[in-house]
Specification:
Layout (H helix, E strand, L loop, with lengths): L3 E7 L3 H11 L4 E8 L6 H14 L7 E3 L13 H4 L22 H11 L4 E5 L4 H9 L3 H4 L2 E5 L15 H5 L1 H16 L9 E3 L1 H4 L3 E2 L2 H9 L23 H19 L6 E2 L1 H10 L4 E10 L10 E4 L10 E7 L1 H22 L1
Parallel strand pairs: 1-2, 1-4, 2-3, 4-5, 5-6, 6-11
Antiparallel strand pairs: 7-8, 9-10, 9-11
Helix pairs in contact: 1-2, 1-11, 1-12, 4-5, 5-8, 10-13
């Protein structure tokens, strides 16, 4: 596959961690930097999670930067009930060793990287859009400079996962999301090519990536573990993995917490791994289809705060500002994930 150069912005987060580990397993993906946005946990913890995971995946040379510390206009709300107090469930964080650009500003880094590599960088956003909104304020030409933008966020003709109509990332900072889509509306009006519009992976399609616990058994087998990793709904909550493979153990302990969370909310002993799908879109490893739409975000109504709205029919009379994913292939996606992560886990074990 052709080389993909990525700037990753995340709020790690169990499914962010899974997505980042997947990206680390891909030989054709070069991660330029990982920037940290507050969301699932505070930004300092996000950065620590990112550094630790990159170290675990043998990618400690990838720079990690911290962005803003709070949303644009509303107080930060984190989600320890969903991702655990540290953001990665029951997983134990190894000592982080990956590069930290002390004093560096994530937003300035993005802009400098985009200017220096015009048309070459793909941005993957699996967090609230605060950092990206501020980057667009400082450099309105970013839509032209970036090769591709992939956003995990929003819910259109689908139930929200934070309020009845709102998805988590957008609800944390709806003003930032509104600014981002407004910036792309303005860019579209100035002739931005439709291929550069953000690809939006909303709950409508990310929740189709419904992971079952037997994923971890398949992963341990692919990784060559001596004993299969078995996670069951009947296990006591908080049971920790005994796998000898550090990556399998880390992912198992993180995902167990996620399985338990979904069960607490009557969704079954499963995990919706939203960010993995978005990462696969950015990396070009997963199949999907999109439809152009004009997207906006509600920031005034208390009832609908953070709700995303997509106009697919041009009723607002505005140009499309996004490509919304409307179909994907979870079965093939999980097969890809088992193969890639299994190979990485096996390699890391051999090198340890």
């Amino acid at each position: 596959m052709d080389l993909v150069r990525l700037l990753v912005d995340c709020d790690t987060g169990i499914d962010d961690a899974l997505a980042l580990a997947h990206l680390c397993s891909l030989e054709h993906v070069w991660i330029e930097a990982v920037t940290s946005t507050p969301g699932n946990v505070e930004v300092e913890q996000v950065a620590a999670n990112n550094r630790a995971l990159l170290t675990l995946c043998g990618k400690s040379d990838i720079p990690v930067l911290m962005g803003v510390r709070e949303p644009l206009e509303v107080p930060l709300v984190t989600t320890p009930e969903t991702h655990g107090p540290q953001g990665v469930g029951y997983a134990t964080l190894p000592d982080p060793e990956s590069s930290v650009l002390e004093g560096a500003d994530a937003i300035d880094y993005w802009i400098d990287a985009a200017r220096s590599n015009s048309g070459e960088l793909t941005v993957l956003l699996t967090a609230p859009l605060t950092n990206f909104a501020l980057a667009l304020r400082r450099e309105p030409r970013l839509p032209w400079m970036l090769r591709k933008v992939v956003i995990m966020g929003g819910a259109f003709y689908y139930q929200g996962n934070t309020t009845p109509t709102a998805e988590w990332n957008t609800h944390v900072d709806p003003h930032a999301a509104k600014e981002v889509f407004a910036a792309y509306t303005a860019a579209a009006e100035q002739g931005l090519d439709s291929s550069k519009l953000p690809i939006v992976c909303s709950l409508d399609t990310t929740e189709r990536f419904e992971m079952q616990p037997d994923f971890l058994t398949k992963l341990s087998e692919e990784a060559g573990c001596a004993e299969p990793e078995i996670v069951q709904a009947s296990d006591p909550e908080g049971t920790l993995s005994k796998s000898s493979n550090p990556l399998v153990r880390y992912l198992s302990d993180a995902l167990r917490f996620y399985f338990e969370f979904h069960r607490h909310y009557d969704q079954g002993y499963i995990a919706h791994v939203h960010d993995y799908f978005a990462a696969g879109v950015a990396a070009g490893t997963l199949d999907y289809e999109t439809r152009p739409a004009t997207v906006d975000v509600e920031t005034e109504s208390q009832l609908l705060f953070g709700t995303t709205v997509a106009d697919f029919r041009g009723l607002w009379g505005k140009p499309a500002n996004a490509q919304v994913v409307v179909s994907n292939d979870p079965e093939a996606g999980f097969a890809e994930l088992v193969q890639r992560l299994g190979a990485l886990a096996r390699k890391l074990n051999e090198n340890s």
